[in-house]
Amino acid sequence: MQPFETVTTPADLRTLLPHGAISSIARSLKMSHAAVSKALQKARPSHPAVAEAVRLIKEAGSQNVQHDLNQLKK
Question: How far apart are CA 48 and CA 72, in angstroms?
């Protein structure tokens, strides 16, 4: 078993999204905020909310910033 510090967990897509993006995704897909949030938590690539979130994350550059922060922690 790995020590707690070295266990890698998948990044929660919700933390990488810009402010208000979940509501925007919910409106554009005509889904509830809770449904979008749950889909992002599960991070299944086939879900339309996840696909839209990934597009927004790439557009905002949040993924690059998260990678840079992880490099600083090492």
Answer: 33
- Domain map (residue ranges) of the chain: 18-73
pTM as predicted: 0.70
Going by C-alpha positions, the residue among 4, 8, 10, 11 that lies closest to residue 65 is 11
Asked if 26 and 36 count as a contact pair (C-beta separation under 8 A), the reply is: yes
Tens of pLDDT, residues 31-56: 999 999 999 999 998 999 999 999 98
Distance of alpha carbon 6 from alpha carbon 31, whole angstroms: 36
CB contact at 8 A, 49 and 25 = yes
- What secondary structure, in 3-state letters, does 44-68 show? CCCCHHHHHHHHHHHHHCHHHHHHH
Query: Burial of 63 by CB count in 10 Å (0-12 exposed, 13-18 middle, 19+ buried)?
Result: middle
